[in-house]
Amino acid sequence: MQRSLVGKNRCRSYFSVMEKDTKSLVEAVEDAGIVAKIICVNDKYLGKEFLGTTVTRQLLKDLPANVDPCGENGEYHTLVIDAPFFKEKMHVLQGEIVYKKYPSEDGNWDSSFYYLDMILEE
Fold it and tell me: Is 61 strand, coil or helix?
């Protein structure tokens, strides 16, 4: 999807995932040989047991129904460690899990996240 922003700079924004079937995007990513690991989860949607999981068709079966397959609503975030366009794979080790809570002033949108530290192997 493309949106034009009218103004003196005449910028264009591209929203490549917006309004697409994100389940098929996960399948396309896997078929393309892209390896993405979940490194952050919003605890309103997913538990910390999803940290370190590779985004694959199997993940689609394991995700709760209220979670977008690509995490497009902030349910999870990833780190791509390998892809055909990488010069070489990133070799990483899983580090500690960190929990952070972000309270709002009014208490209406408090959010909490689990983060997985990823350590680049030397």
Answer: helix
Phi–psi pair at 102, nearest 5 degrees? -120, 90
Smallest CA-to-CA distance from 79 within 116, 26, 33, 24 is with 116
Q: Under 8 Å CB-to-CB from 110, ≥6 apart: which residues?
A: 101, 102, 103, 104
pLDDT tens track for 4-40:
445 555 556 555 666 678 898 899 999 999 999 999 9
pLDDT per residue as tens digits for the range 31-40:
999 999 999 9
Query: Greatest CA span in the chain, whole angstroms?
Result: 48
Question: 10 Å Cβ neighbour count for 90?
Answer: 15
pTM equals: 0.81
Instruction: Catalogue the long-range contacts made by 87-94 (C-beta closer than 8 Å, 24 or more residues apart).
Output: 89/35, 90/120, 91/120, 91/121, 92/37, 92/118, 92/119, 92/120, 92/121, 93/118, 93/119, 93/121, 94/51, 94/52, 94/118, 94/119
